[in-house]
């Protein structure tokens, strides 16, 4: 993906001015929603290092492996609770569309985030059917 391409997170900004600077470590996410969007974008471009680095150390797995044939195709935000500058926790509910081979699918999750060392981290989430 080129920096001038539309950001996968669904904002109206180009990738190079939206999520890419976060992936490169040039700036941290300012809100839980911004972190969730940047993590979605990282999944779409295959940046699993960023996903791992932004996962809270208490809950993150030892390693991450890509899912063969999985392509993320769209993000829809449904709700946010707290997660603003100055908050210690936040929640973001979303639906992320994907294709796995020829089959479409949707991941519906309510993610929880927390601030640690003045940075937002993904804690965990509840997945809905």
TrEMBL record:
From which organism does this entry originate?
Answer: Mycolicibacterium rhodesiae (Mycobacterium rhodesiae)
Q: Which Gene3D superfamilies match?
A: 3.10.450.50
Instruction: Give the family, as the similarity comment puts it.
Output: Belongs to the UPF0225 family.
Give start and end of each YchJ-like middle NTF2-like domain.
31-125
Q: What is this protein called?
A: UPF0225 protein BST42_17895
Fetch the InterPro entries from UniProt.
NTF2-like_dom_sf, SEC_C_motif, YchJ-like, YchJ-like_M
Q: Name one Pfam family in it.
A: SEC-C
Range of residues in the leader sequence: none
